[in-house]
Each structure stands twice: as C-alpha cells, then as structure tokens.
Amino acid sequence: MNRTLILCKPDAVERGLVGAILARFEQKGLKIVAAELRQLDGETLAEHYAEHVGKPFYDDLVSFMGRSPALAAVLEGPDDTYAIVRSMMGATNPADASPGTIRGDYGTLFTENLVHGSDSNESAAREIGIFFPNL
Question: Region 62-78: what's the mean pLDDT?
Fold first, then answer.
C-alpha cells in the first residue's frame, strides 16, 4: 500500500467541511491511517513550506495556515495514492476546479482552497515525516 498526506486547511475546519472531505476519500476506497486536529506552529509550517520561504506570498500563507486548527491526515491506497488525492482535490484555484472535485464543489477563494495534498511520493514521505514522525 502507498501513503500520502493531506491537510484540511483552517478554512475547511472553520466551515465544518472536514467530515465531508474525509468521506470523499473514504468513499473512493482510501483508508485513513492517521489523523490529528492541531494548531500548526511556525516551525512546522516553515519545514512543510520550505520551498516557499522568501517568496512574496509566504508570510500570508503561514498566517492563514496558523490562524486556527487544521486536520493533518495520512491516507493509504494503491500505488501513487497522491495522484488520486490530487485529482479529487481539483485545481488549486477553486474558480478553475471542476465540479465534482473538493475545490470545485466547496471552494471559493484561491488563497483559501480547503485542502493540501502531497504532490509526489517523495513529497508524501517527507511531509508524513513532518506531521507523523512515528508512523
């Protein structure tokens, strides 16, 4: 089995969409093997978003991701589970996301787009290590 990380971002938690989002992944046949609602601190966010440090949007991103709790979860499924998750999430900008995707159905803002999913198996391994080091 293959694993990937998702984050239900603060806007998803604030809007009460975590259950609906997780249900979609479970209905697809993916298994939740770890999940934790947590307030993300600056150190964790700096490690998670290391490739964005110094970019113009970085401070706003960290501020948004730390404003209220997020749900970190590890999903397990077939090879390249990350690709299934990314497809289900939809385009980063909800205005461009297809109906039937998480962002297409629930998203409204580009800067608050509900969910993060690892973008490769390598990223998944790195990100799972950040959020669930004992997994």
Answer: 97
Q: Rounded to two decimals, what is the model's pTM?
A: 0.95
52 is catalytic: no
Strand ordering across the sheet containing 2-8: 31-38, 70-77, 2-8, 115-117
Q: What is the pLDDT of residues 12-60, one digit of tens each?
A: 999 999 999 999 999 999 999 999 999 999 999 999 999 999 999 999 9
Q: Which CATH architecture has domain 2-131?
A: 2-Layer Sandwich (3.30)
Question: Does the pLDDT of residue 1 top 90, yes or no?
Answer: no
Residue of 116, 118, 127, 128 with catalytic role: 116
How far is it between the farthest Cα atoms of the chain? 39
For residue 94 the two structure tokens come to 């909800």
The set of residues, in sequence order, having a beta carbon less than 8 Å from that of 66 and lying 6+ positions away, is 10, 39, 40, 41, 42, 45
